[in-house]
């Protein structure tokens, strides 16, 4: 996810969750340096707009659906190609590792303390069971 998802309402009062993903790929031509390629794809999800709160920048997702290619003429009169993905299902895979600078910032930031819970009933916690 390159940015947080946004829920939009169509003229016919239907809600659609719109978001953009980046697909990173690379290849190494013979006797040359590795080449990195990033393809940006605009996605739409029509089923449950509540998913938008989980589709935040940096989240890794696995999508199923249908890819569509499109084109339009921009304000300069040039033809521009687009890739759109009509999403049928979304699987959240977690957050990306981020850039080295983002990882350093996370390491330096103080961590919030873990919330402690007591087991008042005397029964063993599920985490302490030997199986």
UniProtKB/TrEMBL annotation:
GO terms for molecular function: single-stranded DNA binding. One of its GO terms (biological process) is DNA replication. Residues 94-131 are annotated as: Disordered. CDD domains: SSB_OBF. Keywords: DNA-binding. InterPro entries: NA-bd_OB-fold, Primosome_PriB/ssb, ssDNA-bd. It comes from the Bacteria. This is Single-stranded DNA-binding protein. It comes from Mucilaginibacter polytrichastri.
């Amino acid at each position: 996810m390159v940015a947080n998802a946004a829920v939009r309402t169509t003229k016919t009062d239907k809600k659609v969750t719109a978001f953009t993903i980046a697909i990173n790929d690379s290849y190494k031509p013979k006797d040359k340096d590795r080449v990195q390629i990033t393809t940006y794809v605009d996605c739409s999800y029509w089923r449950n707009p509540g998913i938008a709160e989980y589709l935040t920048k940096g989240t890794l997702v696995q999508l199923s659906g249908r890819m569509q290619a499109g084109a339009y003429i921009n304000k300069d009169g040039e033809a521009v190609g687009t890739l759109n993905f009509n999403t049928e299902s979304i699987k959240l895979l977690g957050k990306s590792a981020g850039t080295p600078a983002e990882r350093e910032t996370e390491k330096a930031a103080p961590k919030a303390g873990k919330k402690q819970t007591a087991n008042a009933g005397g029964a063993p916690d599920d985490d302490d069971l030997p199986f």
